[in-house]
């Protein structure tokens, strides 16, 4: 299991389905399904999921190597 999978699952739960998350993130349902077993997630997808969830799933939990949490130095 990837370290970001629980966060993808949370985003799916928040939006109600893979298809709804995909629509909100402007990608395909297949891309969301792939993320559940992918070894990594792109920075662009992390940004899209953060926007789709209204910040409830942040880019910093999806890609902590690229994005720092607010207030972190």
From TrEMBL:
MF term (GO), any: DNA binding
Gene3D superfamilies: lambda repressor-like DNA-binding domains
InterPro entries per UniProt: Lambda_DNA-bd_dom_sf, YdaS_toxin-like
Database matches in Pfam families: YdaS_toxin
Protein name: Cro/Cl family transcriptional regulator
Species of origin: Paracoccus suum
């Amino acid at each position: 299991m990837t370290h970001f999978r629980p966060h993808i699952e949370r985003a799916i739960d928040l939006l109600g389905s893979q298809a709804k998350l995909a629509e909100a993130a402007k990608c395909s349902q297949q891309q969301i399904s792939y993320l559940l077993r992918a070894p990594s997630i792109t920075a662009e997808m992390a940004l899209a999921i953060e926007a789709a969830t209204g910040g409830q799933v942040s880019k910093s939990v999806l890609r902590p190597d690229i994005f720092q949490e607010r207030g972190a130095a």
